[in-house]
Write a structure and sequence with these properties.
- It is a single chain.
- This protein has about 170 residues and is an alpha+beta fold.
- The chain has 2 domains: about 80 residues, ACT domain (Alpha-Beta Plaits, 2-Layer Sandwich), CATH 3.30.70; about 80 residues, ACT domain (Alpha-Beta Plaits), CATH 3.30.70.260.
- The chain has 4 helices and 8 strands, in the order E-H-E-E-H-E-E-H-E-E-H-E.
- A 4-stranded antiparallel β-sheet has the order 2-3-1-4, covered by helices on one side. Strands 6-7-5-8 form a 4-stranded antiparallel β-sheet, covered by helices on one side.
- A hairpin with a 2-residue loop joins strand 2 and strand 3.
- This is Glycine cleavage system regulatory protein.
- InterPro entries: ACT-like_dom_sf, ACT_dom, GcvR, UPF0237/GcvR_regulator.
- It holds the Pfam family ACT_6.
Length: about 170
């Protein structure tokens, strides 16, 4: 079986996921996992599919026929190596200002964490009328990384940029 990772983008409208799923299924593919969202009127996502090796090229060609509805880029997937890591969840909440994502991901990168999922949003602050930035990060923590050093760096950062950062192990 071939694993393919598809990146998909198009003007948001009803039926996009169904059209993609129909093409994948019609070519013997199996929808493994996905992250799909509407952002600012644009539908975007990533989808992992598996397909019999002999039908891989056929599926890739058929996905091209969705051009005009969805722009799809196909990337070869691979089986991940046995992990020597543990999963870590990080939640961020604070008054919105530029640079929060950059600053948080810089610290994670310094400790060699691999971000698996990142979800962010802006919400209205209930009492102040301002805007709050909220993020959830799921990352892989390599076994050789010192969790106490990571925690200390995140606490220092939270103090510097005036946000709350909490770790869920």
């Amino acid at each position: 079986m071939a694993n393919l990772v598809l990146t998909v983008v198009g003007d948001d409208r009803a039926g996009l996921v169904a059209a993609l799923a129909t093409v994948v299924s019609a070519h013997g593919g199996n929808w493994e996992q996905s992250r799909l969202a509407e952002l600012a009127g644009t539908f975007a996502g990533i989808v992992e599919v598996s397909v019999p090796d002999v039908r891989s090229a056929e599926l890739i060609e058929a996905l091209g026929e969705l051009d005009g509805l969805l722009k799809i880029t196909t990337h070869p997937g691979s089986e991940p190596a046995a992990p020597a890591w543990r999963s870590l969840e990080l939640n961020v909440l604070g008054n919105d200002h530029p640079g929060i994502v950059r600053d948080v991901t810089d610290v994670l990168n310094q400790h060699r964490l691999n971000i698996e999922k990142l979800a962010t949003r802006i919400i209205e602050a209930p009492m102040s009328g301002g805007r709050l930035f909220e993020a959830t990060v799921v990352a892989r923590l390599p076994q050789e990384v010192d969790p106490e050093a990571l925690t200390a760096d995140l606490e220092r950062l939270a103090s510097e940029i005036l946000v709350d950062i909490s770790l869920v192990d």
